[in-house]
Specification:
The complex is a heterodimer of chains A (about 475) and B (about 120). With about 475 residues, chain A is α/β, with parallel strands linked by helices. Chain A is built from 16 helices and 23 strands. Chain A is globular. With about 120 residues, chain B is an alpha+beta fold. Helices cover about 20% and strands about 25% of the residues of chain B. In chain B, the strands form 2 sheets. Chain B has a 5-stranded mixed sheet with strand order 3-2-8-6-7. A two-stranded antiparallel sheet of chain B has the order 4-5. In chain B, a hairpin with a 2-residue loop joins strand 2 and strand 3. The N and C termini of chain B lie far apart (about 65 Å). Classes of the chains: A alpha/beta (about 475), B alpha+beta (about 120). The interface between A and B is large, with 58 and 43 residues.
Chain lengths: ~475, ~120
């Protein structure tokens, strides 16, 4: 057993669980690193012990999938080295650096499967730094994992499927939803529709959510331009103001859930020196992978939303496929035949998901043009309260047309979130201010640690 | 609309969990077992901390350990990320630093300077 390949899986969401399962089926015992207290990832996040809501209440139409994923990981627990509450904070050649409960460890690997998931993608709105503004994901986590609403009267603002899903979940749970404000155009283009038809049942379910919200009396607006989030520094938000063809409207609220689709958590891929490519559909940089999830670096595989935003179903397929590819590449006994037998169907599934993703990105586009119109006083970096005006000044006054140069001058992207919540918008602001194509602006280089660490953890780090 | 002192979050169900006692800025408070610290505090107050960049109070943003907006201070002067820390009996948290770190820094640099003037520096 000592010459068995050392395989580490990062993430215990849909991709990580299915990858781990394929590895265990091949007779291996992978290390599974996950930041969460429990497995499931964000989408199938498990509520803490002592909560009593049933699966149907928590996961709605996705009940069977959530139940299957949790049950399958429970069954794997004895056969994997599962490390919850563990942050993978750095990746050097062939070694993953982790910390769990203040204890550092270095994990050498023969294959690394990064299933790191995604976070919300945000466009700043004047006032979004006020207390009471949350990401859409946060609004959903509050409900699913803690059985509470982010406020007594919530406005949802942004675009994409999560906007309508979270709003519907709030209404179903008895929360008061003041409005759902979508920046997407009134009607999707033909190209968008043809993409959405790749998964007709899912598209219909989305339409059903919108109908349900209308029936519940929730104010729905499309094609809005966010103007500002009103409130006070002490008490936080008290209204959202948007502009549309109907003029300016103000929706009173005490909380805002906002977001525009998701962005991949690709920091480990970056630290591992994987190549990235610009994705024109979503206007974001993504790690380059082949159909099976192989990155440009041998031994590093990427699956799930951390590599491509295909959603939970796509993540399950991608996780399994990447693990099968890794086993085949390692020439593990029987792995080549297994990969050859299963890969075609898994790849087909992923291609369908990719068509749907392109449809979604066109039907609910990232409103990149809003970045150019943000008033100079808008806070772009919430971490350090740096404004669009300060960033534009660096572009024009210091010739910072590239995002890392602009980061060095302005500190936008250098704060505690390390550009997760400002990076994409900052790139759009730089592109617009300097009249530079967005792909030429580049992407923020990842610095370790990928999340804040206590200094004494680094001091105590064992030798690799 | 909402009173400035009203809690920010609203419990929709799961309210029959055992109570957990903690303190917020030195005042006794009650949460429910299974609450994250963020949820526990936002059922008592409208925010978690004051922004050190002067734009007002903050109440967290992503709830998934990614944005780092929800760090609070403990009695001992350590910091905890409220969204990923379960509340525990007897926990003592603060919305502002319990110690004046900048004051200590000024004291430290004055000390260094004094040492330099005593001829310690070449």
């Amino acid at each position: 057993m000592s010459d068995a390949p050392r395989i580490v899986v990062v993430g215990a969401g849909p991709a990580g669980v299915r990858a781990s399962q394929a590895l265990v089926e091949a007779g291996l015992r992978p290390i599974v690193i996950d930041e969460g207290l429990r497995d499931g990832g964000q989408i199938y996040r498990r509520q803490p012990d002592g909560f009593g809501r049933g699966y149907a209440k928590l996961y709605g139409s996705e009940t069977a999938k959530a139940e299957a994923l949790h049950r399958d990981f429970d069954a794997l627990r004895a056969q994997v080295d599962y490390r919850p509450r563990t942050l993978a904070w750095n990746l050097s050649a062939g070694v993953l650096h982790v910390v769990q409960d203040g204890q550092a460890a270095n994990l050498p690997f023969d294959a690394l499967l990064v299933c790191s998931g995604a976070t919300d993608r945000l466009m700043p709105v004047p006032g979004w730094n006020r207390a009471g503004c949350y990401s859409l994901g946060a609004a959903q986590i509050a409900l699913k994992s803690q059985a509470c609403a982010i406020g007594a009267q919530v406005v949802f603002l942004g675009s994409g499927p999560l906007l309508y899903l979270v709003a519907s979940q709030y209404v179903a749970a008895g929360a008061k939803v003041a409005a759902v404000l979508d920046t997407a155009p009134e009607r999707p283009s033909l190209a968008a529709l043809s993409g959405l038809l790749a998964r007709p049942r899912l598209a219909l379910r989305g339409l059903g959510l919108i109908r349900g919200l209308r029936k519940a009396g929730v104010a729905l607006r499309k094609a809005v331009v966010p103007v500002r989030i009103d409130g006070t520094p002490e008490a936080g938000v008290d209204a959202v103001v948007v502009r549309s063809a109907a003029g300016e409207e103000r929706f009173a609220c005490d909380a805002v859930g906002m977001g525009w689709h998701l962005r991949s958590e690709a920091q480990l891929a970056d630290l591992g020196r994987c190549d990235f490519a610009f994705d024109a559909f979503s206007r974001q940089w993504l790690p380059a992978i082949d159909e099976d999830g192989r990155s440009s670096v041998p031994g590093i595989y990427l699956a799930g939303d951390g590599a491509r935003i295909l959603g939970a179903d796509g993540a399950e397929a991608a996780g399994r496929l990447a693990a099968l590819a890794a086993l085949a590449d390692l020439e593990h006994p029987g792995a080549r035949a297994r990969h050859a037998a299963e890969a075609p169907a898994l790849r087909r599934t992923l291609r369908t998901m990719a068509r749907f993703r392109e449809g979604l990105a066109q039907a609910f586009p990232w409103p990149h043009a809003h970045a150019a119109g943000l008033p100079d006083e808008t806070v772009v970096c919430r971490c350090e309260v740096i404004t669009a005006g300060e960033l534009r000044e660096c572009v024009r006054g210091k010739d910072a047309h590239e995002v890392n140069r602009a980061k060095a001058f302005s500190r936008v992207g250098m704060g505690r979130c390390q550009g997760r919540y400002c990076g994409h918008a900052a790139a759009e602001i730089i592109a617009a201010a300097g009249d530079t194509p967005i792909e030429a602006v580049g992407r923020i280089r990842t610095q370790a640690p990928v999340k804040p660490l206590q200094m004494d953890v680094l001091q105590a780090e064992p030798d690799a | 609309m909402t009173a400035p002192s009203a809690p920010r979050f609203v419990r929709l169900s799961e309210t029959d969990r055992p109570a957990v006692a903690f303190t917020l800025d030195g005042r006794p408070a009650t949460a429910l077992r299974g609450d994250t610290l963020l949820v526990a505090v936002l059922h008592q107050a409208r925010s978690l901390r004051a922004s050190e960049f002067g734009d007002g109070m903050r109440a967290g943003f992503c709830l998934m350990g990614a944005c780092q907006d929800c760090w609070m201070w403990t009695d001992a002067g350590d910091r905890v990320r409220a969204c990923s820390t379960p509340v525990a009996e007897g926990m003592a948290v603060h919305t502002r630093p319990p110690r004046d770190d900048w004051g200590r820094m000024a004291q430290f640099s004055a000390q260094l300077q004094a040492q330099g003037e005593e001829g310690g520096a070449p």
